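Slide 14.
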Amino acid sequence: MAIQDLHESKSYSISQLCEIGRVQRSAYYKWLNRKASTNEIFNIEIISLIKDAYEERNGILGYRQMTIKLNREFNLALNHKRIYRLMGILGLKSVCRKKKKSYIPTTPEITAENVLNREFESDGFGEKWLTDVTEMKYGLQGKAYLSAILDLSDKSIVSFVMGYSNNNALVFKTFDIAHLAYPDVKPIFHSDRGFQYTNKSFKKKLDDAGMIQSMSRVARCIDNGPMESFWGMLKSEMYYLNKFTTYEELERAVSEYIHYYNHHRYQKRLKCMAPMEYREHLKTSAA
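Slide 15: predicted structure.
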C-alpha cells in the first residue's frame, strides 16, 4: 500500500520503491492485481478517515483518541488495536510531548487540610472543583498566566482567565466567573498552596459562597492530579505544538482549545463523551 500510495501521489519509480522496501517487483504486481478482500477494502476506508481526523487536530490524536473519535462520529465499532496498527502503517503518532513543571515555595497566610484526599470521583456537577494557575510564554520574553477551575464529575473547565501577571486578581476573577455562573453550588474547592489561595481574602470568598477549602500537601502535586493532567493535555495538544509571537495569539489559541476540550474532546472515562455532553447525560440519568 505504501508503494502504491507513493507511486501515485509522488510519481516515484516502482522499481526504486520496491528496492527500498525490499519487496520483489513481481510480488508487488501480484498484490496490486489481486482482488482485495472485504477487510482490506474496509481498512482503506478507515485509513482515509484516520488521515482526515489526524490533520483536523494537527496531529494531536493518538490511537486511543482516534478510536473514540471515529467510533463516535461515524457510528463505527472499531477496536483500538486496528487503529493502532493502521496508524503504524501510516507512520502517524501523536505529536504531543510533555514538559516538566517547576515549583516555587511560598509562605502561606492560611492553609487548609487536604479534605479532597485524592478522591477524584464525583457523582454530580458542583460537588468538587479543582483549580490552579499555569505559565505560558509568547514572543521572545513574554509570559502569560492561565487560571482555571475544573469540575470533577464531568471534567469540564468551569471557568478560566488569562492574564499578564500571576496575581490575586487573576485567581479571584476566575472564581467570581464560576460562582456567578453557578451561584447555588457549594463544592469542595481544592487547590495547591499557592499564595493566591492561602490569603485571607480568598478564604473569605470561599466562606461567603459556602464552599469547603481543601489544599494539596506540600510537594504533593498528585493531590491535584486531574488539574495537572488537564494542564499537560492543553500544553501537549496545543501549546507545545505552536510558536506564539503575541499575547493575543496565545489567548485565542487557549480559548479555542478549551472550547474544543469542553465540547468535542471525547474521553474514555466519560463513556466516550465530551465533558459538556457528559454533564447533560448525568442530568438525564438523574431525571
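Speaker note: The radius of gyration is 24 Å.
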